[in-house]
Amino acid sequence: MDPVSAIGLIASIGTLLKASKGTLDLIKSYKHAPKDLFELVHDLEIFEEALRGFDRVLRSRQTKHNISEKILRTAINDGSATVKDLEKRIKQVYKTENSSLRRVRFVQNKSHFETLAKQIKSQETFLAVCNQHPQLLEACSTVVEEMASEPRFPSDMSESRSPLISRYPSSNSSSIISMSLGSSQPSSRSSISSKNSSTTTSTSFGNTLSVPGRSDRRGSDVSPQSSTLVDSRSTSSLIIRRACRHDCYCKCHDEPTTGESKTPSSRFNARVFRENNKPKVECSDPGCAATISQEKPIPVSLFKKAISNMMSTSSIQVRYRLNTYRMVPEGSNAMRYVKHGNLEKLKLAIESGEATPWDTAPDGWSLLHTAAYARQLPTVQYLVKLGAETEVSDLGARKPVDFAFLKSRGADATQTEKDIVQVFSKQDDYIDDYEFTPIHIAVLDLYDPEDLERPTLEELIDFVDHANNAPQGTNWSHWKAKYQKRSPLFVTIIEQFRVSAAENPDTGKIIQNLVDQKDRKFHWTPLHWASATGQADKMKILVNTGADPFIKSNLNANILHAAVESNALESLSYALEIHKRYPDLLNIDQSNVWGESPLIMAAQGCLVGCVKLLLEAGADPNVRQENQQVALHYAGLSDRGEKKCETVALLCDASNTAKLDIDAQDEDGRPPIFDFVDDMECMKCLTQHGAKLDLLDNSGNSIIHHACMQGESDSLEALLQLPGDGKLILTRKNNDGNTALIEALRHESIDCAAILLELDDVGDIVGQDGWAAVHYAAKLGDQILLKAVLKHPTFTRGMKTRDGKTARVIAMEAGHWQGETKDLLNRYNALI
To answer: Residue 305's pLDDT band (boundaries 50, 70, 90)?
Structure first.
């Protein structure tokens, strides 16, 4: 085996070792798993032990090149697939906290666990044989190669067509192979046996060799007792290559021993033991006992090839991920770009280093969480391609795929939401994480494709009530047998009752309240999900059959929040009817764990219908969430469009003017109007209702600064035309010492800078670190901008940055010291 293949195999074995150990730790981490899977755990421990031993064999200097790569690669891949499948099923069964549901899933997967146990036993047997006899595979593969290179004669067709070696040895082999190699001790499964075995082949790797299926023809110097004759047509025993006289089993030694007869032998023996008339194969094994030549230096190109192959192979796993997980505020530029669906600005922010694909808000929401929740398919695809984490959970243990699933089941779901789900998961395995009850499944229409009965929500609720009415001591096994051929949902319900009765024998009568049971991800009851999916009819069924409409999730969300999640107007209307009857129990301004009321959530998505219903029902637009933002702030973070303006108009309506704080500043000092610099219609609406333009955030930035930083040239022009003390805002410096012009140049907003340069007074043209407008213009290399800066009244020749760089040096560093840029700087920036 060449070094490149050996490195790849060693890496694959290392990955498999890590996976098997992780699976063992996973089993032990669950309370009931070690007891339920006792035999499987034992087999897996033996498999891991054999794998570690084989890893040592493969790394050995004497044996690392003496094993067939193809057979090993197949075995390792099979082992990896088995361990991966086992880990997946263990998580599906045991990660639930509901004992009844866990037992149901164990019964459903029991046959799969037994199958996986058999596979692990078979693979461990293969590894054990290789650990004790590493030359076995090399010998067999060499025989196959030599036989393949021989021409086929008509008489050969009478020989057995069965393969000489199987994929790898298994416990179902039809023969017994026992091997003796000096003092080596067999492992627990190094002997392969079968009850159906009728033949035994004994092979000793010493000075003699037994060949199955042929008589001994080597001469009189070999005693007849040293061979065992076995019909090769009636056995699948392995054909073993004879060891060389140096006892190192090297490929280069295939010459006969001293006393071997030179008489012709049969074709079969000729293939295996004949003298090779070809030039002798040069030995490449540094440990060969017959070679005392000088070791050849390994070419550098071979080492580079090995390292390249090792780094590119899929079996190599990075030990440490060096991603930078930055904690960013909810209102950061990157978060706003994701919510707005502005992919180009997001790409620019990431490429410039202003943001990373792993930026995360304090509540655990990453850019990917936000993109999935905001239904931004191109942004999701871009972030996943960059390597953004898809398995990281937020404060509520929800992954990005969970938000994608939520939006895909909503009343306003489109194909886009379903495509986002497919980006994260090509299978439906993520649904198992929710641990939906049969009532959830009926509400969400998540029936198994094989369930032809598909019982309705009413039928399942009636069945639960029927089971709750069963007397104490009911034999639930009889119920299970009775409904065995019915929908599996009935069997699941019965199994929950049976397990509860078995685990709590002293409880007495078993009562199950499935209509109020929460799922594991969102901690929503079936009523929450019916509200979120816009199924007011199912909400009425649940409420009329005893469901509690006042239950809140673990994040303090009620059914009003759930209805707003998917713009479900019918569900929201029905929930508001309940609120009118019980205003104290179903609070219309209920804040979730982030302080968001249903109105704030409706404003974020610019859900005009929901905003209107909530305001008419008396929702307070001044409720502040954890970052001190109000509904107007959230409306500014949504996409552009007519719905955004309609939402702002509703929030600024005259009937609510008295109680609306239109200039409410959040914890960063940003009023709502700062989030509307990308929408002139909304800005006009806010200014008409009294929004102030001279407010500054905590960084000292005005609305003019924000328009320049975001490159909103149209908004900048409109702001400059508004009446007021615009000069004061225009010339003001922020906390970094930059005016609006300098911020425009720093953020490469050339159009905004050009608009400001048309004015005579733009404030101090020197910003932080001594960088003036001419320095930024030279770095950007835009000739029109540079000419405007050089001709502006505030321009001064020979200006230097704080570290002593002139515009000429900066242009050279940026690669723009040529053409018109060079001419302009020489003409206007020269000292004389």
So the answer is: low
Q: Which pTM was predicted?
A: 0.62
Work out the angle between the directed axes of helices 457-468 and 488-503 (0-180°, nearest 10): 30
Using CA atoms, how far apart are residues 181 and 183, in angstroms rounded to an integer?
6
Quote the CA–CA distance of 807 and 786 in Å, as a whole number.
11
Does domain 588-679 sit in CATH 3.20.20.105?
Answer: no
Please tell me whether residue 222 adopts helix, strand or coil conformation: coil
Q: What is the DSSP string of 587-644?
A: -TT---TTS--HHHHHHHTT-HHHHHHHHHTT--TT---TTS--HHHHHHTS--SHHH
Residue 154 in contact with residue 81, Cβ under 8 Å? no
State the Cα–Cα distance between residues 94 and 75, nearest whole angstrom: 28
Beta bridge partners of 800: 806
Q: How far apart are CA 703 and CA 676, in angstroms?
A: 10
Q: Which two tokens stand for residue 801?
A: 């940055």
CA distance 575 to 598: 12
Segments making up each domain of the chain, as ranges? 3-133, 136-165+198-296, 325-427, 436-518, 527-573, 588-679
Count CA atoms within 13 Å of residue 162 on its CB side.
11
Give pLDDT tens digits for 308-357. Answer: 555 555 444 544 455 556 788 877 889 989 988 889 989 989 998 889 99
The Cβ of residue 730 has, within 10 Å, a number of other Cβ atoms equal to 20
Q: Which two tokens stand for residue 308?
A: 């390249």
For the ranges 32-41, 56-65, 648-657, 797-806, the one whose mean pLDDT is highest: 797-806
In what helix (H) or strand (E) does residue 201 lie, and over which residues does it extend?
strand 200-204
List the beta bridge partners of residue 202.
178
| Banded pLDDT at 623 (limits 50, 70, 90) | very high
Q: Indicate the helix (H) or strand (E) that contains 707.
A: helix 703-709
Give 112's DSSP letter: H
pLDDT, tens digit (0-9, with 9 covering 90-100), for 266-301: 433 433 334 444 455 555 555 555 544 444 555 555
How far is 619 from 12, CA to CA, in rounded Å? 60
| Partners of 295 in the β-ladder | none
* 191 DSSP 8-state letter: S
In the prediction, which pLDDT does 275 show? 42
| pLDDT value of position 584 | 93
- Paired sense of beta strands 176-180 and 200-204, if any: parallel
CATH code of domain 3-133 = 1.20.5
Task: Answer yes or no: CATH 1.10.760.10 is held by domain 325-427.
Answer: no
Assign 3-class secondary structure to 653-678. CHHHHHHCCCCCCCCCCCCHHHHHCC
Structure tokens at 445: 């229409």
Place of tokens 């397990």: 499
pLDDT band at 150 (very low <50, low <70, confident <90, very high): very low
